User: What shape does this take?
Amino acid sequence: MDDFNFTFQSALRRQMLGSYLGVELVTDGRHAIFSGPTGTGKTHLVIALAYRALQHGYEARFVSADVLIGELSHAASLGTLDAALAPYLPPHVLVLDEIGYLAHAADAANVLYRVVNERYLRQLPILVTTNKTLAAWGHVLHDGDLAEAIIDRLLERGAHFEMRGRSYRTRHRKETDSVEPTDA
Assistant: This one.
């Protein structure tokens, strides 16, 4: 957390993270969704929050949304979804990175709902990153109703942090820099 540049990412202040930095993340079952453009620090922050949980003696698991959804979708097609869910339910904190960055399977909402709902019922936090607006999740997950149910569960005991601005990775480039097409 100390390495995050809150000056560059002006849409967020360290104080806004409040209880997410302490044991309350786990004891209160607090979820968080970090949304915004590429390079704005979403993944950095969820990893830092998960690391804080580890420092407090809790377990955490990190997985990309593409891997989780792909794995669970495949298991569902084989009739082994319950077994495939097992690694994602017990950790005190689950980090789900990059919902919507890559195309998700047709049953994405179905399998993701299973993870979110089970963890919601157990009051175990999920930290999510996405480059899509919450309104676009229905399209991304191929089911507007289930996407709404997922967001509803995440935000009941959680918060939505909207990141803005330019990519930190390319901060050294001038706004006028552009990539020129090459002649073939």
